[in-house]
Write a structure and sequence with these properties.
Elements: E1 2-7, H1 16-28, E2 36-42, H2 45-56, E3 64-68, H3 82-89, E4 92-99, H4 101-107, H5 117-132, H6 140-160
Parallel strand pairs: 1-2, 2-4
Antiparallel strand pairs: 3-4
Helix pairs in contact: 1-5, 5-6
Length: 164
C-alpha cells in the first residue's frame, strides 16, 4: 500500500514525510490490499479554483477536493473492474486528494487556537479519504456520521504520531 505525495505548490512549507506517514496510517484504516495506491497532490489556489469550477461548478478556491476511482465506471471502460485492473497492472489507485495548503492556512483561524496548520492538513486529508470510501455530508445524518469519523481518525492519528 502506498501513498504518493505530489507537492506542486511552494506557498506553504510542508513536512511531506510526516504527511505521507500519517496519510498512510489513515489510509490503512480503510484499505487492506497492499497493491492499493492513494495520490495526494498539494496544489496552489489558482489550480484548485480551476478544478473546483470544472468539477463542482464553484468558482472559488477550496481547501480540499477528492476523487474516488473505486467505483468509477469511466475508468474501467477499457476493462472489467478494479480486480481485473489489479491483475493486469499489479496496482490500483483508489483515488486522489487535492489539497491547497494556502487556502487551509487562511481558514486555520476558524478552527481555534489548538489547531496547527499540520493538524488541519491532516484533518482535510482524512476528510478526503472518507469521501473516497463513500462517506458524504449531504444529509444531516450523513454529515454527523462523517464528522464523528473524521474526529475519531484525527484523534487516532494524534495518539499514533504524538500530536501535530
Amino acid at each position: 500500500m502506498e501513498v504518493i505525495i505530489i507537492n506542486n505548490q511552494d506557498d506553504v512549507d510542508i513536512n511531506e514525510d510526516k504527511i505521507s506517514s500519517v496519510s498512510k496510517f489513515i489510509f490503512s484504516q480503510f484499505e487492506k490490499d497492499e497493491s492499493s495506491e492513494l495520490n495526494i497532490a498539494l496544489i496552489g489556489k489558482d489550480e484548485i479554483k480551476e478544478i473546483n469550477e470544472k468539477y463542482r461548478q464553484i468558482n472559488k478556491p477550496t481547501d480540499v477536493l477528492s476523487f474516488s476511482y473505486r467505483n468509477d465506471k469511466d475508468i474501467f471502460g477499457f476493462m472489467g473492474d478494479e480486480k481485473e485492473f489489479r491483475k493486469e497492472y499489479g496496482f490500483f489507485t483508489v483515488g486522489e486528494i487535492l489539497l491547497c495548503p494556502s487556502v487551509a492556512k487562511e481558514k486555520l483561524k476558524d478552527y481555534g487556537d489548538d489547531w496547527s496548520l499540520e493538524k488541519l492538513l491532516m484533518f482535510l486529508i482524512i476528510h478526503g479519504i472518507l469521501h473516497i470510501y463513500e462517506y458524504d455530508h449531504d444529509s444531516d445524518e450523513d454529515r454527523k456520521n462523517m464528522e464523528s469519523e473524521q474526529l475519531r481518525l484525527l484523534e487516532l492519528a494524534e495518539k499514533e504520531f504524538k500530536s501535530f
